Amino acid sequence: MNRVRVAKDKADLVKAIATSPERDSAPFETYADAIAFAAALGANRKQRSPLQEISNREPAPIALEVFLSRGYDRLIKLLAVTATQDPKILSITDPACETQRLEIFEEYANAGLAILKEEFRGAVDYTERLMLVVLEGRSAAESFPEDFDLSRFLG
């Protein structure tokens, strides 16, 4: 069974930003949500980082089914196709393709977690800092004109 792994040096951050029995207020409801957000952030910043040492404790590698049940299968596939520029990576019959998709997802998540770790340095409230990261990304996206704005060709 395939699992999504977290780098050992990012495990404490994942625990800190996901809700747990000890802490009922955190930016993310589950570890899977935090990791998926980090993967999207890594992809947004065009950064991938291979995992070195893997966390075997909290959070231990998370079953792929957890991500699928939360609807992250599309994100995993989109990141894989974007990274490889090869639609064959979407094969459901080739186990090597699934392994490669997960590795790409993990690398984007690892880079995203490194970005968050830097952004959160010295922060007391991770939720507030996270909102700033989201707003910063949103305003950066809005500052670039759309590539296919055909309205400029109209009278």
Helix-strand layout with pairing:
Elements: E1 3-4, H1 11-17, H2 31-44, E2 62-63, H3 64-69, H4 73-84, H5 95-119, H6 126-143
Antiparallel strand pairs: 1-2
Can you describe what's shown?
The chain has helices spanning 11-17, 31-44, 64-69, 73-84, 95-119, 126-143, and strands at 3-4, 62-63. Strands 1-2 form a two-stranded antiparallel ribbon. The chain is 53% helix and 3% strand. The protein starts with a strand and ends in a 12-residue tail after the last helix. It has one domain. The model has no long low-confidence stretch (mean pLDDT 86). The chain is mainly α and 155 residues long. It contains 6 helices and 2 strands.
Q: How many domain regions?
A: 1
Specify the helix fraction band: 40-55%
- What's the average pLDDT? 86
- Overall 3D form: globular
Q: How do the helices and strands follow one another from N- to C-terminus?
A: EHHEHHHH
The rounded Rg comes to 17 Å
* Biggest beta sheet attributes: 2 strands, antiparallel
Number of helices: 6
Strand arrangement, major sheet = 1-2
The secondary-structure class comes to mainly alpha
N→C terminal distance: 58 Å
Tell me the strand percentage band: under 5%
Q: Can you count the beta strands?
A: 2
| Unreliable parts | none
Give a short synopsis of this structure.
With 155 residues, the chain is mostly helical.
Descriptive tags:
single chain, 155 residues, mainly alpha, two-stranded antiparallel ribbon, globular
